[in-house]
Design goal:
This protein has about 180 residues and is an alpha+beta fold. The chain contains 2 helices and 9 strands, in the order ββββββαβββα. The longest helix has 14 residues. The site of zinc ion (ZN) has 8 residues, from loops.
Length: about 180
């Protein structure tokens, strides 16, 4: 995984790291201050926002996938609730405020060197209407099942295939 850079020096005290057995695995560890570097997975979360039978997508500015479409989302910050991360990224990329309403699915596996190891897909409900793409997106709009654009990632295809399959079920009734 290219994004997980090897570490040579202790980020706490600056001493040269050594390899040491910690938690049943050889890991970079500091002989001076007992810091151990654990290579943790990167986590991203996305919002699957549906409105009037159409799904919200954003067009990516950056590579990989520049010019292609995906769900609004991004990396979860350390200490951040992944649900709030999905809502935050959606607001940043589309201008829409959303309420996260449930968990759709979770994907494991990095698609590219800059990608997440774990992707959490939440369902979201739009609380506002005006779309104003920004940040990592230069366009944002809702697409119906028959008008989906060119998608950026295999995970985007999988999530939307799941969304399309779920749409064949009758809509839930509310009393
Ligand atoms: Zn140290």
């Amino acid at each position: 995984m290219a994004r997980h850079y090897p570490m040579s020096f202790c980020p706490v005290c600056g001493a040269r790291l050594e390899s040491r057995l910690a938690n049943s695995k050889e890991r970079p560890a500091c002989p001076a201050c007992h810091f151990v570097h654990y290579c943790d997975p990167k986590v991203a979360s996305v919002a699957l926002v549906e409105h009037d039978g159409r799904v919200l997508l954003v067009r990516r500015v950056w590579n990989p996938g520049s010019g292609r479409w995906t769900l609004p989302g991004g990396f979860v910050d350390c200490g951040e609730d992944p649900r709030l991360a999905a809502a935050r990224e959606c607001l940043e990329e589309t201008g829409l405020e959303v309420e996260i309403t449930g968990l759709v699915d979770l994907y494991y596996g990095q698609e590219h060197a800059e990608g997440a190891d774990i992707l959490i897909v939440y369902a979201g409900r739009a609380l506002t209407q005006a779309l104003s793409p920004a940040d990592d997106a230069d366009a944002a709009r809702f697409f119906g099942p028959d008008e989906l654009p060119e998608l950026a990632f295999a995970s985007t295809h999988q999530i939307l295939a799941q969304w399309l399959a779920g749409r064949s079920a009758p809509p839930p009734t509310r009393s």
